Amino acid sequence: MSRMTMGVHHVGLSVRDLDAAREFYTEVLGFDVVGGKEGTSVYITDGTTMVTLWKTAEQDATLAAAGLHHLAFRVGDLETLQELENRLRARNVPILYDGLGEYGGLAGIFFYDPNGIRLEVTFEHGGDTGGLPAIGGCGGHA
User: Fold this and answer.
1) Of all residues in the chain, what percent carry a pLDDT higher than 70?
2) 3-class SS at 55?
3) Which pTM does this prediction carry?
4) Does the chain have fewer CB atoms within 10 Å around its N or its C terminus?
5) Strand ranges (DSSP E) for the chain?
6) Could you state, in order of their start, the residue ranges of all structural domains in the chain?
7) Can you give the pLDDT at residue 7?
8) In this structure, which CATH number among 3.10.180.10, 3.40.50.2000, 3.40.50.620, 2.60.120.280 belongs to the domain 10-124?
């Protein structure tokens, strides 16, 4: 069977608090706002991936419900991950597995956005992580 799709165009996230989501994705992760409708939606991009935030949720996200398990973003090096970890800790963002770690050829960090959506930021480390601890990775349920 031939493929019907050609990759991901964007990821749409339902959020309870649109203002908190916009601030988190722009201030912590460095996304740029590229569109949306005031009070209803915000379209953001990191230059490669577009995420659309929609004020539609009545409660925070949970891994116990069917839907998005996590959303992973890619970075180019360990230094960027360390800078991100510092930003997350400065804002008291809930971080899983005690911070940066290594799992299955990747180095990364797992955390939650203000609406309880589980996020990952990762890079393929090529075998040298400077001694990062092994962590649960995306299969974990923490």
Assistant:
1) 93
2) strand
3) 0.87
4) N
5) 10-15, 32-37, 41-45, 50-55, 71-74, 101-103, 106-112, 118-124
6) 10-124
7) 81
8) 3.10.180.10
